[in-house]
Amino acid sequence: MNSETGAAPASGTPLSVRGVSRRFGAVQALDDVDFTLEEGEIHALVGENGAGKSTLAKIVAGSILSDSGSMSLFGEPYQPSSRREGAAAGVAHVRQQLSLVRGLTVAQNLQLGRPDAPAIFNAGAARAEVERWSDEFGLGVPAETLIDDMPLAIRQQAEILIAVAWGARLLILDEPSSALGPLETQALIALCHRLRSEGTPIIYISHRLPELTELADRLTVLRAGKVVVAGADVRDADLREVATLMIGDVTLLEVDRPEIQRGSIRLAVSDLSVSSPHGVGCHGLDFEVAAGEILGVVGIAGNGQDSLAKALTGQVKLTGGRITVDGTDISGSAGQAIAAGVAHIHEDRSNGLAASFSVADNATARHIGNRRFTSFGVRLGDKIALHARELIERFQVRPPEPAAKASSLSGGNQQKLMAARELEQNPAVLVAHGPTKGLDPEAAKAMRDRCFAAAQAGGAVVVISADLDEVADLAHRIIVLYRGVVTDAFSSEDMTPERLGAAMAGLTETSGATGD
Amino acid sequence: MTDVVAGGERGEIEHAPAGTEERSLTTSLSTSSLAVLIAVVVGGLIMLFSGENPLTAYGAMLDGAFGSRFALGETLSRAAPLAIVGYGTAVALRAGLITIGAQGQVVAGAIGALLTAQFFETAPSAVAIPAAAIGGALFGMAWVLIPAMLRAYFSVNEILSTLLFTEFAALLIEYLLNNPLKPPTAITPQSDPYPDNGILGLVIDGTRFHTGVFAAVIIGLAFIWWVRSDRGFSYDLYGENPNLAQSLGISSNRVIINSLLISGATAGLVGWIQAAGLLQRVYVGIASDIGFFGLVVAFLGGATAGGVLVAALLFGALQAGGLAMQSSEGIPASLSDIIQALLLLGFSIRYAPQIIRLTRGVMANFTLVGRKRR
């Protein structure tokens, strides 16, 4: 095994998968799948959540075994029985949840568990190696910084860098762009092209179709474990057709925004300032949201979105200004925010749910303190389960099993569960932070409809997102955050890529917002 | 359904993210039983190597724990304080707080109970007994109040602060029993005899089964109520996901302070039971190792009502049986200590991922003096 990229003789097709099947219990995750990765290509693997993309990736990487079928790697039979074997053969799988050790530096992560690591850790050599690779690919990956202290995009670059340094001959990137903003995605695409030109073929898993035209050479579409498009040329592909094949129903991608009657102001934010120990915080934000209105808050991740979401839901003490809902001050009190009817879709589902608690407990968690569900302080399990069942039904959480653990649900259903908890009653204010992030088209449509429904029912909705498409689909009006300051504000009809790009990069300043 | 993850092998290109295993503290009693079995077998081997017959030894232990009315009373009177401390610790544990200061709170509770009982020396028992119980609980709470406030307001790690307060308690009782509380006639450090009107009488004569043991039943019932209550649910939710709990309006400071105060109160009660029931006087070693074994009981019992009860009985029996074995067969009681240690070891290996996860969260976010800047 060689630690230099592509130095091994690359004879034959990089990867050929023939007739691979895999079943999990009752679910046929992969059904007789053929897949070929050619030399020097970026091959997009697309499909809904649960279509089998990740399963295929894991089989190729060696972390799970296929039930049947065969594979070959660079012309040689390939049957990895563990990730270690896959890695030794040169297959690197960079997953959605990055797997660097957060309390260590990039250089330390490089050496940790490395297949050919020397017995004694040589800090200088590791640092030099990180710097060499970082220079070679034109990245800014710092060798001596703790993973914890780096932004997500850089962590991802570090993980790809480590994979290449370990001698990866073939890269699998699983949903790498799902948490990135537009600029960061551009940088990722540039890195992928760079790797391709250096001779490393890439399997790129995504369900964001638009970025693939720019990125990939060919694409394969999976639906319910079957290949429905095999290696089509991306330039010739009709994305609408691809979307149809992917989900079977293209109307899911179309957003038809309902006409919503504006009412009076429900959410008023004046001169809001929050300081954050590990972020930029917010400085002097002023805005109002009326009943039936959806306000989009965009910006590159890490420009004060978290502080704003926490402030609007009463979870942080303000350093200045105030927030009122229907005239009631909710500043700094989550309890008052809830009493005033503020609902919160958390950005991170793992943060917004109690994972090891039951679906019923999660669905009804906003009822803590509600006498209806207790007797002498004791929770009435039957009443709670009954109520949870209604919510599950209404919000279409699958499987409809109140006693199941929340962690056992798929991502889309966890999102529905969180919506069930937060949107049971029509909220006065809905703070939706990345509501469709990482969801397949069907689940995403369901979440969009929930946001529209909240507005239609007279709620003021704030959608905070790094995904511009998501905001464009939902919002009537948009404000742009840069370093915790509003740099531009416009209605969604006036949104142009140029204007947005300038505001997100902090190149404009509106009269109302002062710089820091 | 896409995330069916193969187990976390270490050191691949994917460095195996932690937390793929979703077993909670409250499950897997069967693995705990396995730990017990291993401890018994390994303990037997050690006995064999030290020239004792394991069957005789275990027979003597069983006999000493359950074989007679006296043995049963001994087991129960040892299990009761462990269970009470265990239940209190479990409340904090379920809220995500690792308090290891029960030992010091037991000592504080014993002092509090004694002082209260001396104050009510002439009152009827119906007043003096509950007053001393309350006094003990209040002292136990007082002993955890400062660590609780430090944790709530300054994010000072409660593991370290509660341990420090245990040291303070040990020093304080040594001072008190050598100076102000020491009767003029006494040679060794100890208090006056516990006032007669506050003594918890024996339930069965000729045993050490005193009425204080029933406090464990009351605390156990209270714990069952707590686990099923709305308030308890909100505390458990905080332990599971503090961010979510706070966003639902559950006050972080209230959860931290109250759950630690509850654990302090139960440990303080144990101090009262030991002083008023078992020993009827306060000694420096009044807490023996109840505080520490109570923590073990809480962990080993998975912080559940039944689990804590079983674990407390197990340790009570081991301790009672070990002493009986020594007196009847001449086999050193320290062999029983070895088995208890093996149990602790077995269980800590079993729960290592959870313990590491619990403590890593704490360690990563806090330093001794406050929240780490990130």
Description:
The complex is a heterodimer of chains A (about 525) and B (about 375). Chain A has about 525 residues and is α/β, with parallel strands linked by helices. Among the domains of chain A are: about 100-165, no CATH class; about 265-505, Rossmann fold, CATH 3.40.50. In chain A, about 30% of the residues lie in helices and about 25% in strands. In chain A, a hairpin with a 2-residue loop joins strand 1 and strand 2 (about 25-35). In chain A, helix 4 crosses helix 5 (about 150-165), helix 13 (about 380-395) packs across helix 14 and helix 14 (about 410-420) packs parallel to helix 15. Chain A is globular and about 70 Å long. With about 375 residues, chain B is mostly helical. Chain B has a single domain (about 30-365), classed as Orthogonal Bundle (ABC transporter involved in vitamin B12 uptake, BtuC). Chain B is built from 14 helices and two strands; from the N terminus they run ααααααβααααβαααα. Chain B starts with about 30 loop residues before the first helix and ends in a 9-residue tail after the last helix. At the A-B interface, helix 1, helix 2, strand 6, helix 10 and strand 18 of A face helix 8 and helix 9 of B.
Helix percentage range of chain A = 25-40%
Q: What's the average pLDDT of chain B?
A: 83
What is the architecture of chain B at the second tier of CATH?
Orthogonal Bundle
CATH topology grouping of chain B? ABC transporter involved in vitamin B12 uptake, BtuC
Structural class of chain B: mainly alpha
β-sheet strand percentage of chain B: under 5%
CATH architecture assignment of one domain in chain A: 3-Layer(aba) Sandwich
| Average pLDDT, all residues of chain A | 85
Task: Give the low-confidence spans of chain B.
Answer: 1-27, 360-374
Q: How many structural domains are formed by the residues of chain B?
A: 1
Largest protein interface?
A: A-B, 73 and 39 residues
Number of helices of chain A: 17
User: CA-to-CA gap between the ends of chain B?
Assistant: 35 Å
Overall number of strands of chain B: 2
Question: Which structural category fits the helices and strands of chain A?
Answer: alpha/beta
**Spatial extent as radius of gyration of chain A:** 24 Å
Counting DSSP H or I runs of 4 or more residues, the number of helices of chain B is: 14
Q: So, the CATH homologous superfamily of one domain in chain A?
A: P-loop containing nucleotide triphosphate hydrolases
